[in-house]
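Appendix B, example 12.
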Amino acid sequence: MQTFSSPSNGLLRLTVSFPRNHVVTRRTAPISAAANPLPPPRHKILPCRFRSQSPTSLPTMARLPPLALAALLFLGVLAACRAANDPRAVLLPVRKDGARGQYVTGFRQRTPLVPVTAVLDLAGDMLWLDCERGFASSTFRGVPCGSKQCRLAGRPSCHFDSCPAGKLRPSCLNDTCGVFPLNPDLLMTNGNVIADVLALPTTSSSRPAPLATAPAFVFTCTFTLLTKGLAAGATGVASLSRAPLAFPTQLAATFRFSRRFALCLPPAGAAGAVVFGDARYAFQGGADLSKSLIYTPLLVNPAKTPGFSGGGKSEEYFLALTGIRVNGRAVPVNATLLAFGAKGVGGAKLSTVAPYTVLETSIHRAVTDAFAAATAGIPRAKAVAPFKLCYDGSKVARTRVGPGVPTIELVLQGGATTWVVFGANSMVATRGGALCLGVVEGGKAPGPSVVIGGHMMEDNLLEFDLAASRLGFSSSLLFRQTNCNNFRPG
């Protein structure tokens, strides 16, 4: 095992670990353009299945004439099958694991289909899963070293004769494309790139929603040790990044819908969703936010963020953050830190695996000082780690959009757009009744100067339009008297 730490404060640590007795041969020569034996990305449909009507509805249906009843049933079957055969959108359910502060999703995979739980990540090259424990499927296939899928996997290696004869399994295959996946704690190991069936619910109004399936969804099979630090029950990490093998691009190619997705992260105890494709952003009660989002460009960092293997551009999502305001007043920050520097340092990115927003030391100090000055009339409480500025929660008023504290504005594009952050997304309730400003000091370690974490994105609708390279955002849904638990994309 090898460990690398940043030279400044050690906050960024990359650990590389390989299972005992597992041999990996890395081929550094250019990969040949061998033909790809995997099937083209065409989707297929699971057989349409329907639950019987509930007992309360049977008397009503029984009163219908036989011909009308048959027609009604036929039309229901036809509508559901059409929705699965040509989906406009598919979705992943989302919940928050309160213990880890991670956002977890579930889907079905393999043959026969089994439920799989994974942590959502706006970074990463592709979905990776633990295939060492309990992986069984009759349809998985290794991705060959010279295939197109392997070339899309970033900087792949090639595994040659490293697995003993008679002991081949998804996590250990010969002559197979190999990569080095990371978990949220920056633990790294090796894995095989394979393809298998993936099934997701559509946004059809039919209940249960029919499943659309990708017969050869590419992902990484790796080892159990990489699940360390994941939410309970999670066996991998699902990438939502720009990468060609991450969920957004693979699903768009498979189902031939737009290369975009909408993300609605819930707080603990509620539900949210990620919807891929061309859906209406409808909410229970009739609200439709499809045409009312505010848009700002998504930037591409010219270098990968430190801690990610491989060269080239970053696959993460960065914003053109040019300033920060507290209570309407500009916070004095070093503007050069908000732009990209050498080797991917600086800038502002979005992250679902950072529970709270992380600010470079000088930015953190400026923001907390400005917030403290704007809240001088609220009694303080003892700081609760990892936060530095806390208040007596019983002395803070409550509003529709959370604790009644000054707003924080993220100034985008030189002031052309602002993302307004209200108390529900800026403050964190802690044990003992303290209410803390939910920003964490990130030190001066190389990396982004601002990382907008999951808590600040909760109950906000975010649309990532990869084709147009732009982000659409709603600001707090609570201001509109709704939330992510009411998200009903259609």
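Residues 1-14, 20-62, 69-83 have pLDDT under 50 and may be disordered. Residues 250 and 479 are 34 Å apart (CA to CA).
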